[in-house]
Sequence to fold (329 residues):
Amino acid sequence: MRSVDDLMKDLRELPKFRDGLSYLYVERCKIEKDNQAIALFDTDGKVPIPCASLAVLMIGPGVSITSEAIKNLARTGCLVTWCGEEGVRFYAHGLGKTRSANNLLLQAYLAVHDDLRLKVVKNMYKIRFPETINDEMTIQQLRGFEGSHVRRLYDQYSKATGVEWKGRKYDRSDWSQADPINRAISAANACLYGICHAAIVAAGYVSGIGFLHIGKQLSFVYDIADFYKADLTIPCAFQAVKEGTQKLESRIRYNLRDLFRNQDILKKIIPDIEKVLTVTDKDGKIIGPSNIANFEDNFAADKSIPGFLWDSELGTVSGGKSYFGDEED
Fold:
């Protein structure tokens, strides 16, 4: 259990979720309303939490929170996520700080235009293989390159650790029959998916609109998590199996929890998403929310204003008003 002084130091030195947005992870405590903010209570006493400065409050094991505290968090726009230790596993989330749908609209727009979608996919591969991928490669060539690279990666860690590798094979309906290394990789990836999911929803994107992966509610989570498997989950899984198979999944979760913290993984995810979704149109102009909707993003300045209404000719019109009696009617 960390002391109150340690927690206060954390609040002063919060790592950035992205520029201007920060997060706080808590566990084994009680959270209550404290005037217009919240307060954390544990065996060491009370810690006031300035929730207005938080983007995300990550609630780990052993936490109870009052409805009044949730109200204050929602009022200040802080996203509350319920997760495993140190953000490992992602169970649920509440209302986030993002009032605008701009990131969601951009994500959807890029996903439904094949030429732009291909640019996003190539950006994803460039993040993973910056020295190898070029714009002339087809999607089939990219998949083939990825498959070859991952196969070499598995063989490399197998030789380094002495853990036998027979391929990525397991039966989802009979999990216990999978060999230890396959169980270890799946357990490690599940942890990574949780923390990527938290970052995605915190930034106002949606998990179900993927670019390379499609058809699942976590498609975009799988897209983003692939950036980090080679450096995080795969080596962690092989090392864990090398050390034995007792409590394998549990040890992996603890190891990754510490690894995520030490490598500041939360600081990387949102900038990587933004990098991936930065593409240009045929004229070389960067595509952003202003290119796909003709309304100003005023929601950050005034959370109470209504949204807009779609119009087939005008693009959008103001919401929150009656149009009965207009000439068009």
Q: What stands out?
A: The two ends are 65 Å apart (CA to CA). The chain has three domains: 4-93, 103-276, 296-329. The chain has eleven helices and eleven strands.
